[in-house]
Specification:
This protein is α+β, with helices and mostly antiparallel strands. The chain is built from 14 helices and 18 strands. The strands form 3 sheets. Strands 9, 10, 11, 12, 13, 14, 15, 16 and 17 form a 9-stranded mixed β-sheet that branches. A hairpin with a 2-residue loop joins β6 and β7. The radius of gyration is 26 Å and the shape is elongated. The two termini are 28 Å apart.
Length: 437
């Protein structure tokens, strides 16, 4: 891939002149219509509108953008922002639109088609889309610079709905290791492949809408920033005073805390580990490496004053619904540690823009239900093939302090939630299962 201004991009520049001329014409037309309306009587009230995002491919010829704008103007649509992405054949125009509520997605697609637009994609937009692209990119870069775990979130906010797979380095399941993508990455229509700064590869997929070279360059810049800064976790920590007077320090954890987490696993009873993972623990080191990795979510750890790790809480990205899971060492169960970690996990999920959190457990384990109820959020329950999923919808209320009975119940079994994998004995499959949609 080469850099610089292409002849095609230079030829596309006159399109902006056409847009300026058209907007001036629109301004004169609107002024004339308002004068007529004032002469006729009182002005009507403000019209009801909706925001839309549109992406369409047009020919790379002078006047193509003006034709698209004219077609949208006939529908009463206002263009709020516009980006152009030159391609080998044609140009992709990405627009943020304000349209009357009477204009739906089908009407917008028909309008684009009448102006020569192809492969048109339309979806409802949100008010945060009104932020201009450079400002949004700077904000995402700042968040990524502060926290390794922000990279998947930043990529998704940049690209919209997409799936991010983190492929660990080395062989998986006895097979030969997959070759790493080249240093500059690979773009193939709806798939990006990049080297993961933490090792292995990152794959980004968006089947419903092909990526443009501009989007690929932006994602690659975020990944390069992550690589330059290295592993990093925000230094913030909190101290919890338990009812017995003992103190637990809670902070973010990452792979550097792997040895302490493994030592805690070895101190846990087989019953506690089975209820946490829904199966035998055959390869805890590999599974912990997956859980503590920044590409799969965020982890909170509880430490004693003597420096022992005694509790782990995980957020595992699963699209807009994020899984929560807790493991509390046997000797520290029943003291409220698990309930406090769960409250903080829900807060992290809300800050990340997640709409809900869910915990997976067995129907015979009431601890999870009590702990999730302690969040003070609306709950949904689903039972299927011996597995209970409890989902808490975020945003309806702030997670409050868990009642004493909920805190005790949350720690009585040492587990709230479970891994998405039923048996971590097949560690290769589990380690490769981490994806974020």
């Amino acid at each position: 891939m080469t850099h610089g201004t292409s002849s095609r991009a230079l030829r596309a520049r006159p399109r902006w002149h056409g847009l300026a001329t058209l907007r001036a014409r629109w301004a004169r037309t609107v002024a004339a219509r308002m004068a007529d309306a004032r002469a006729a009587g009182p002005l009507a009230g403000p019209r009801e509108t909706a925001l839309w995002r549109m992406r369409t491919t047009v020919r790379d010829t002078p006047g193509s953008l003006a034709a698209l704008c004219t077609a949208l103007a006939r529908l009463g649509v206002d263009i709020l922002t516009l980006q152009t992405h030159p391609l080998a054949e044609g140009t992709v125009d990405e627009l943020l639109l304000r349209a009357p509520v009477t204009v739906d997605a089908h009407a917008l697609r028909r309008g684009a088609a009448s102006a020569g637009g192809r492969r048109t994609w339309v979806e409802r937009a949100h008010t945060h889309d009104l932020v201009d692209v450079p400002t949004r990119l700077l904000g995402l870069a700042a968040r990524t610079a502060l926290d390794s775990a922000e990279l998947p979130l930043a990529v998704r906010q940049l690209l919209g709905r997409c799936t991010i797979h983190a492929h660990p380095p080395g062989p998986r399941g006895g097979a030969a290791p997959e070759p790493l993508p080249p240093a500059e990455g690979v773009l193939e229509e709806t798939v990006m492949r990049l080297r993961d700064p933490g090792g292995g590869a990152l794959t980004v997929e968006r089947p419903y809408l092909p990526f443009t070279p501009t989007e690929f360059a932006r994602v690659r810049a975020l990944v390069e920033l992550d690589a330059r800064l290295g592993p990093r976790v925000p230094p913030a920590r909190e101290t919890l005073t338990l009812p017995e007077g003992e103190r637990i320090t809670v902070r973010r954890a990452d792979r550097r805390d792997g040895p302490a987490a493994l030592a805690m696993h070895r101190r846990c009873s087989a019953r506690t580990l089975r209820r946490r993972y829904h199966g035998p623990v055959a390869d805890a080191p590999r599974y912990l490496d997956h859980l503590l990795g920044p590409r799969h979510g965020r982890t909170l750890a509880g430490w004693t004053a003597s420096g022992e790790l005694v509790a782990l809480g995980h957020l595992l990205w699963d699209g807009e619904e994020t899984e929560v899971a807790l493991l509390v060492e046997d000797a520290w169960q029943g003291r409220g540690v698990g309930a406090e970690l769960l409250r903080r996990l829900a807060g992290l999920a809300r800050e990340a823009g997640c709409r809900s959190v869910y915990a997976v457990t067995q129907p015979t384990n009431p601890a999870m239900v009590a702990a999730m109820r302690g969040l003070g959020l609306p709950l949904e329950y689903q039972l299927e093939e011996g597995t209970l999923v409890v989902t808490a919808r975020l945003g309806a209320a702030d997670p409050g302090a868990a009642p004493a009975d909920a805190a005790d119940a949350a720690d009585s079994s040492g587990v709230v939630g479970a891994s998405g994998a039923a048996d971590i004995g097949d560690a290769a499959d589990v380690a490769d299962a981490g994806s974020w949609r």
